[in-house]
Amino acid sequence: MGVCFQALISAFLHVLLLVSLEQARAGQFHNVSNLKGRKQVSGGCNLFQGQWVFDASYPLYDSSSCPFIDPEFDCQKYGRPDKQYLKYAWKPDTCDLPRFDGMEFLRRWGGKKIMFVGDSLSLNMWESLSCMIHASVPNTKTSIMRKDPLSSATFQEFGVTLHLYRAPYLVDIVREDVGRVLTLDSIQGGKAWNGMDMLIFNTWHWWTHTGRSQPWDYIREGTNLYQDMDRLTAFYKGLTTWANWVDLNVDPTKTKVFFQGISPTHYLGAEWNRPKKNCDGEVEPISGSTYPAGAPPATAVVNQVLSKIKKPVYLLDITKLSQLRKDAHPSSYSGEHPGMDCSHWCLPGLPDTWNQLLYAADLVM
């Protein structure tokens, strides 16, 4: 009787998950107002609702003077002819976004350890923050360590270290007899995240990879091994494992936790009513505050998982403001990314705004 009851409960929960994911695909959960104070409202201001405005004081640094930028993000060095994309600032509708103060950031986080965890969008944001700080204290001594999975940039005078831990899925990929297995309920990599004073997590892009670019052969959940799985379902399960890790391992009195949010791509011009287009040749943002295609389904999964997490996690809800920046990708001006890159972002550029939002959120958390 007990076994049957458990089976019924399991089946019921599975149906609920499938219904939620279908609603996500239909775009019915774009509002994140139910995140119980863990999201974008800071000091009474929604930092993530607004529009892009021209600002002649931008960019915040020069790529040629920053030692942290990889070729794949250095669009000016690799021939991008236009510079207008460097001159846009994010303007929230109901308040002003504080301008980033690198010296204040270093003083506030002196002797502390900050870690970005995720994929190459975390790399994008990590290099951006390193450049923004460096521009404020260009003569301070720094050290850089680049390895896989852990890299770091240290501002030695202040004892501030920015770590980057590469974990595209957050959950583990394990080598088994059958091959490489994406393990949805294992997060052994999290041992490297303990002891940080700030954690900024990101994941999504690799969940969509198929074919040669897919770094796993099977998916495991418990004792069940699958050749494949609906990717939104897998994302939900993997992100739930991460949420459980946060609840079990994070002490909010010692560690601030942020989730970077879903970074959009611009390969399909139909999303902004320009069929047969991609990001190539785009030189200005979409005007206003509405993206015609609406939010990607993955944002609903993030919102759903964060709404259930017990520990405080601040959502850097960057998706819509980034969707408006179809002009901010490397496109064909990437030193190391073959083909058209409408996924990553030029530096200087959009990730600098992500870090300004992180800076603003940190001030009020």
From TrEMBL:
GO terms for cellular component: Golgi apparatus; membrane. It is a single-pass membrane protein. Residues 97-360 form the Trichome birefringence-like C-terminal domain. The keyword Membrane applies. It is found in: Membrane. InterPro entries: TBL, TBL_C, TBL_N. Keywords: Membrane, Signal, Signal-anchor, Transmembrane, Transmembrane helix. Residues 1-26 form the signal peptide. One of its GO terms (molecular function) is O-acetyltransferase activity. The keyword Transmembrane applies. Residues 44-96 form the Trichome birefringence-like N-terminal domain. Its main location: membrane. Belongs to the PC-esterase family. TBL subfamily. This is Trichome birefringence-like N-terminal domain-containing protein. The lineage of its organism: Eukaryota, Viridiplantae, Streptophyta, Embryophyta, Tracheophyta.
